[in-house]
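Chapter summary example.
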Amino acid sequence: MLFEKLLFSIGANANFKTQNFQESKYDFSLQNFALIFKDFSLQASWKSESTEISKIPKMKNPVWLADLSFKERNIPLSFSGSLKELKNPAVSSSAIQFSKISKTNASLNVKKASPSNPEPLGFGMQFAKAFPIAIQKVQINAAVNANDFFAASMLANFKFSKKSALCVSDTVARYSAQNTSSSYFSQTRFFANSNFLANNLQILLTVPKNKLKFSASFFQSPYRILDFTTKFEHNFFLPLFSLNYAFFYASAKDIFTSSANQLKNLFQFKINQQISFVNSEKTSLLTVGTIFLSEEKIQSDYSTQLLLKQGIYFQLKKESYIQKLSFSIENFSLSPSLKDLFLEQSVFPPLQSLEKSSYKLAYSKQTKNYLSAFLALKFSYTPSESELSAKFSNSIKLPGNASARLKTSFESTLKEKLLKKTVALVGFSAKSNTKFVKINYSANIKFYLE
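The structure predicted for these 450 residues follows.
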């Protein structure tokens, strides 16, 4: 339990609206307070509620987070990943993904929680090599917050060889949800605020050049005894080629997850492949990929639509910059549902579907020198409207202080020949580092030029 370092990060943000200055707001935060020990770390963060610029800060309902984690995180599944599955078990519907699959980044973990996306107060225990040699590691976690949420999880990792392992995770949660938006004409019936139980099971098998993950979530229903979702993902990767596909199915249209919101996805199938090319000098890496996504989704009027997303993308990576170019066709509607498509009861005409689809073209370039500039251009078009957005940002090291940086960005959106939104940002960050203490500072000012 040897102490190593104290990490302290503080920040402030201000958002100014030029058209209505009184609606401008600000907030400040303790972004991270961490005690780093040899074997584990204890972290906490805190953020004030956004306050109007003319008022004193609101301190009653801050967003907060506490986390106890162990440094040896060799278990490829995670407690936070299980909580994310219980909130939204569906496959990511991102149309374009540069998701190179490799041994290091295919562990299927989720990003660490932050004050902008808080997880409940949690604690965990980990036992390493205390079991037969096949069981490499076991971890127990629990979480609770003030909104009647409780979760407990157990993870076990079975190591068969240097490159083969099986990881199993099971999480039980209790949460509260309600449906107060129902009306006489609504398809979902009203139910008062109640506590519900949910369970998430994940199994991840890792073998050479492959990762296979199965997950199932079970939700106590206000309308039935039980609802469930299932998901299967397979990642296959070679040095310059990767292929991944995923399948998702939900048993009902009115599943309320632990996020207290209704699940919108009923069925999904997604396939994404990438192939890379290296020049003879090995100074450039060109990646070409395609993606196909089919999903049956609940619309705002509670009807369903079977939608397609298709895309192709390119990435050129060099030592000094990265360029990306992508084109996608989204919201191409085939039929009201997967059942209607297979039974040919109702299939939309292709031309009609093309007229309602949206077309997106995106380009970005990011430099890796001292300027650290980023440029992004996005254009989307449908027969009813078109939208063009441009963003430029850069980060410059300040002279005389290698740890201090000044960043600026400018973003503008044009919709139907009218300026929809323009945002400008100026930020500053710095850090000081000693043997036992590290402090980070940051401040951002954002201007909305409406």
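To summarize the output: Helices lie at 79-87, 338-343, 350-356.
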